[in-house]
Amino acid sequence: MKVVLLKDIKNLGKKNDIKTVTDGYAMNYLVPEALADIYTSAKAKEIEIKQKAALTAKPKAPKGKKKKKAKK
Questions:
Q1: Which domains occur in the chain, in start order?
Q2: Which stretches of the chain drop beneath a pLDDT of 50?
Q3: pTM score > 0.90 for this model?
Q4: Strand 18-20's sheet: what is its strand order?
Q5: In sequence order, what are the residues at sequence separation of 6 or more whose Cβ sits closer than 8 angstroms to the Cβ of residue 19?
Q6: Residue 41 gets which letter from DSSP?
Q7: Might you report a single GO cellular component term (predicted)?
Q8: What per-residue confidence (pLDDT) applies to 44?
């Protein structure tokens, strides 16, 4: 069964990866624990749209810490 990972899972994959796992592992552990969703073509398109949006989003400029002036 193909699943889309919703979170990083050690020894399986990272968030948004599409993995093939056994039916029992998917239905008894991954899906009930909200670690994965069952793969569908609609879910694949949704992930693709999110990834494109993340790539085109402007990176935020890091806010620098203000340095305190030394007292005289």
A1: 2-56 (3.40.5.10)
A2: none
A3: no
A4: 18-20, 2-5, 36-38
A5: 2, 3, 5, 12, 13, 36
A6: H
A7: ribosome
A8: 85
Residue with tokens 């790539």: 55
CA distance 29 to 21: 11
The C-alpha atoms of residue 49 and residue 3 are separated, in whole angstroms, by 18
Count of Cβ atoms closer than 10 Å to residue 36 Cβ: 27
Look up residue 7 and give its two tokens: 């979170």
For 23-50, give the secondary structure using H, E and C: HHHHHHHHCCCCCEEECCHHHHHHHHHH
Q: What is the per-residue pLDDT for 56?
A: 82
Residues across the chain: 72
